[in-house]
Amino acid sequence: MFQPQKTYEFYSPTKVLSGNKALENLPVELDGMNAVKPLILTTPGLSARGMEKVMASAFGDSNLTIGVFAGVPPQPDLRLIRELYSLYRDNGYDAIIALGGGPVLDTAKALNIAVSGKPEDLESLASGNPLTKKLKPLAAILNLDLSGCEMTRYASLGSLSLTSPALIPDLMIIDPRTATEEEQKTMAATSLMSMTQAVEACLHPARNHLTDAYAYGAARFIMENITNVMRNPSERKGRLALANAAFFAQTSFDNLAPGMVYELGMAVSRSCHTKPGLIMGLLLPHFLLLEMRKETTDRKDLYLFIGGPEAFAGTMAEASARKAVDRIVEILLELQSIVTYFPRSIRDLGIKKEDLEKIVAHGSAAGVRGEYDPQDIRNILEKAWETRF
Amino acid sequence: MNEYKEIQSGSKPFKRAYVALMLWFVGRAIEAAARVDAAVKAEFDGLSPGFTFSLGVMPQGPTMIVGKDDQGLVRYRGWDPEGQKIDLKMKVKNLEGAILMFTFQESTAMASARNRLIVDGEVPAACAIVRVLDIVEVYLLPKLIAKLAVKRYPDWSFGEKIRNRIRIYGGAIFGL
């Protein structure tokens, strides 16, 4: 029976514009949000790649003045937000456009809290008090170097963890001119992060038909495009698919609690300063094998997400879960053959075996909120350390 | 903050001029087609007396305005909406969207489907105008290009198409 769950919630307030000339809609969309003077935040790297020109051209004929701050560092902090707060207020900006991923969105979300109220609201939110002011319009223009939280309610700023549904950007734009080629390893990390978020969403006990729909879209976009884009990074449609996958995966992830692989990937990443997506990719097959062994999920159609409808239809029900794992491993092996210095195990990232216990402690305490047995976490980490794909 | 600067939005004078020229030409061609083609005339006859529509580019034009006069004849009414009562406003969201439409890389129907147009007015009237635009494009463009611009290329007799095409071009260029 195809019926909705007895109760469920789903929240996604973002308007999505994706495709050719999508950027050119910015003036009209800002107008619709009563904004006429946006401040663009981006990184020095993206600025050096000529993104300011692309943006000026996108605003062509709109007669708008646009502020550009192209100095978002990899680790934004409160001092930066205070400086940007003054800049935003003194120059009369009324909207924020985040061009890029990770720290750019963290900065944009934090700045939005500050300029919609006062900078002290950041500490207040981080200590658990809700936001009381409606935030200013925030548009996100995604590229393929993403942290996995851009389109979610989460942001981090130094030691502050900010969480509020109000932080989710109002508008997201994916345009071939901004979702440009990144290093293969960066694009692989972004895609494997999305893949992990999608797979964990579709196995999550609180999943619903909407999170499933988003997770399915993300998984299909990635499985159909990831290796093509790695082989031929100039493949525009493939890059757009991977950027869209990130939005789909993040939206399903945002509506469910973060999963085990996501949390462990973040924890391992902090120990070895490697992009978490790469680590999650290495952990994912071991997590799925554990789930299969323990029969913890009632999901019988994971292979539909991973292999697509035709492959799923041609597979015996009892072999379906195993085929899903095999297909993910095949993708990892292909990535290893295409992407230079793609890790084959977490040992390759400089993680020592004795470090694993610290990660287990972190994972079972802060990360996975007691949902998982520490023995399971240890099992997955040890397998990902010992096994070289 | 060395990394901060303010920039002015760029301008696209050539693209703007091209779209303005196309709108002027299509506007005058619609006026001529309403005299020449029975289907276009019937579409306008179905619209309310004095019906006027504009097709333009956001945020600041160019625009063309076409409407019915007191005698029910269809007239091109220039580019300036100031002081005109407009029943239906069709606005392309940006100049690049208009370029895609007027270089026939995208049909009007496809542009609508891709949400490149904002329509302010009655939906049946907007559908009628999209059908009129399709017919006019078939007359104005060679078959190879018109097939890209319209949803379905009509099955008209060659002689009738050429006769009407000459009259519409004459009307659009020379006001005959």
Number of strands of chain B: 6
Largest sheet of chain B: 5 strands, mixed
How do the strands line up in the largest sheet of chain B? 4-3-2-5-6
CATH class of chain B: Alpha Beta
Q: What radius of gyration of chain B results from the CA coordinates?
A: 17 Å
Q: Give the strand content of chain B.
A: 15-25%
Work out the strand percent of chain A: 5-15%
| Average of the residue pLDDT scores of chain A | 90
CATH topology of chain B: Nonspecific Lipid-transfer Protein, Chain A
The CATH fourth-level homologous superfamily of the largest domain in chain A: Dehydroquinate synthase-like - alpha domain
CATH class of the largest domain in chain A: Mainly Alpha
Note the main sheet of chain A: 6 strands, parallel
What class do helices, strands and sheet pairing of chain A give? alpha/beta
Q: Sketch the topology of chain A as an H/E string, one letter per element.
A: EHEHHEHEHHEEEEHHHHHHHHHH
Do you know the CATH topology of the largest domain in chain A? Answer: Dehydroquinate synthase-like, alpha domain
| End-to-end CA span of chain A | 39 Å
- The helix-strand sequence of chain B is EHHEEEEHHEHHH
The dominant shape of chain A is globular
Write the layout of secondary structure elements.
The complex is a heterodimer of chains A (389) and B (176).
Chain A lengths: L14 E4 L7 H7 L5 E4 L2 H5 L2 H8 L6 E5 L8 H13 L4 E5 L3 H14 L3 H7 L11 E4 L12 E4 L2 E4 L7 E4 L9 H20 L5 H23 L4 H19 L5 H13 L3 H19 L7 H6 L1 H5 L6 H19 L17 H12 L6 H13 L3
Parallel strand pairs in A: 1-8, 2-3, 2-4, 4-5, 5-8
Antiparallel strand pairs in A: 6-7
Helix pairs in contact in A: 4-5, 7-8, 7-9, 7-11, 8-9, 8-14, 10-11, 10-15, 11-14, 11-16, 15-16
Chain B lengths: L3 E5 L4 H24 L1 H8 L6 E6 L5 E6 L5 E3 L11 E5 L2 H8 L5 H6 L3 E4 L2 H18 L2 H7 L8 H17 L2
Parallel strand pairs in B: 2-5
Antiparallel strand pairs in B: 2-3, 3-4, 5-6
Molecular structure report:
- The complex is a heterodimer of chains A (389) and B (176).
- By secondary structure, chain A is of the alpha/beta class.
- Chain A has two domains: 15-174, Rossmann fold; 184-386, Dehydroquinate synthase-like, alpha domain (Up-down Bundle).
- Helix content of chain A is 52%, strand content 9%.
- A six-stranded parallel β-sheet of chain A has the order 1-8-5-4-2-3, covered by helices on one side.
- The mean pLDDT of chain A is 90.
- Chain B is α+β, with helices and mostly antiparallel strands and 176 residues long.
- Chain B has one domain (13-174): Nonspecific Lipid-transfer Protein, Chain A (2-Layer Sandwich).
- Chain B is built from seven helices and six strands.
- The longest helix of chain B is centred in the N-terminal third of the chain and has 24 residues, at 13-36.
- The interface between A and B is medium-sized, with 30 and 24 residues.
- Strand 3 of chain A pairs antiparallel with strand 1 (4-8) of chain B, so a sheet runs across the interface.
